[in-house]
Amino acid sequence: MTATPLLDIRDLRKIYKTRRGWPIPKTALVRALDGVSFTVGRGEALGVVGESGCGKSTVARVALRLQEADGGAVQFDGTDVLAAGKTDLRTLRRRMQMVFQDPASSLDGRQRIIDALGEPLRVHGIASGAAVKPAVVRLLDEVGLPPSAVDRYPHEFSGGQRQRIGIARALALGPDLIFADEPVSALDVSVQAQILKLLETLRRERNLAFVFISHDLGVVRYFCQRVVVMYLGRVVETGPVPEIFVDPLHPYTRLLKLSSPEPDPARAVAMAFQEGEPPSPVDPPSGCHFHPRCPIAVDRCRTEAPALRELRTGRHAACHLAT
Amino acid sequence: MTAALRDDFIPDAEPPALVVDELTTQIRVGRTWYDAVRGISFAVRPRETLALVGESGCGKSLTALSVMGLLPAGVGRVSGGRIVVDGVDMTAADEPTRESMRGDRIGMIFQEPMTSLNPVLPIGFQVAESLIQHRGLSKKAALNRARELLELVRVPAAASRLDAYPHQFSGGMRQRVMIALALACDPKVLIADEPTTALDVTIQAQVLALMADVQKREGLALLLITHNLGVVASVADRVMVMYGGDVVESGPVRAFFARPSHPYSEALLAAMPRIDGDTPLQPIAGQVPTLTQMPTGCRFATRCALRHDRCAELPPLTPVGDDPNHLVRCWARMSP
User: Fold this and answer.
1) CB neighbours of B297 closer than 8 A, spacing ≥ 6?
2) Which segment of the chain is annotated as a signal peptide (chain B) (predicted)?
3) ipTM value of the model?
4) pLDDT confidence bin for B154, thresholds 50/70/90
5) How far is B286 from chain A (nearest CA, A)?
6) Between A and B, how many residue pairs show a Cβ–Cβ distance under 8 A?
């Protein structure tokens, strides 16, 4: 981590309103982000892990201003992202890009690759006229696709190739930071490894920073330098790789690790570790959100939400009992 | 039957509940039929879990659909071999017989429970339906049994949730309902096609534990189809690795992970990022050829580092070392 981080997220909050119930619907508040803070350094890959509904995708959407925050601050290279006006936002969007899980749904099926990748170049004045095609070919080459790909349509590519196109599009404007939301989850293992290698090369060669959102701890361990673990809208643990996986401090991180199957019969997943469902973010448990599933919870955990504390150098956990 | 019997290492008096012998399944592309599953053989005994692994297009789901007799008409067909479920030859049976086997002798669990559950019917009724259909139970008796089944799969407050609809359940709970549904008529064989792939890891662990528990208790033969070698290591007794419709390696789980022998098995393991160690990641070069472009002989040859001239001819499955239960299909890895 560098002294001044590239991205600095402080106490970020996002509340969704939902109306449920019949015959008289009630408005419920979902605290998708309940005071989330973390930083990302230049060229650093930060992993954000957690299960469905923990808010990990919302962080990316709010930080990119695809949705408006309900509180907190986001600083990108000294610029206040949440307060940025239209012009500033345009500049910021060149420097912060996103890669999605399913490139098929983020590419226009009737647009050829040259148009899909050429459009941002033209709109942002990076290339125009005859210069567009060579620029697109260069981008394709960087992600390992042949020049012949320019005239083809998204459906002509396999899942892995489409993800390469999604990455090329994110690279088109020369960003400093990429939010990657489960970029390899939909791919077969062998293709997943190819894409991870590609992202790793890009990170090193372009000094690109990543916020890498994933539920797969193995993938995060390979690609990221630091990790943020989220549970129901809150950060429960942060720390560097591999320490956070070798010796997790928060019981939830431990549960995630124990539940992740490894290809080793001697290390079968601890399958009956906990019954119980992850609680709904609509109605989170009091105190520490994790207490109903926590094997070591005490009375204090039911009433008082633990704050993130630094327990080792660079390692924080939000647990009353962690030492 | 010889090929199927060679896999049977468990000295067990119980006959296998599912026998697949030299099954070939074809898929039609344009006007031509191509072999998508090529002569695969296996047997699964009661209480045993056989995992079928491989990547998209390897033929693992087609094998499951073939066993169920659910291949899409006109597009897929079983063109050779036999499938015997609980003593009944499915391949020789007529459609009414197969229909009565499905959901009765064979239960199936799919990846996405929402596509198999009817969104406008209460789940109690959906579980009860097959009991009314296959067992001729009264509605009341069937609903009573449905409650027992939901309790068996540990749906909390099962009695009060018989009237609930699928959308009122979380993903993990829906998958439990699917398991209850598959178990309704006491099947002998359970086929689970990527049953936990759509679930979060902690819920995946719960559902796998539940399946294993129910399987041992009810004496089910479980055919588990998955792409996740971690899941295989955790729950399977035996594993078969498929590539391009061929079984390339098969064996007991411990022997397989101790000594993965086919270049494709090795490559799959090397491409998997691990939580517990800094293994360098090795992608597999290239991609699975499409059905119309499959090489003759060994179908992995185009991506294989050990490829040589002989690979133009399909190698047989031969024992790894002196282990008669651990088989590999590779000229380079054949014991001298």
Assistant:
1) B311, B312, B313, B314, B315
2) none
3) 0.87
4) confident
5) 9
6) 136
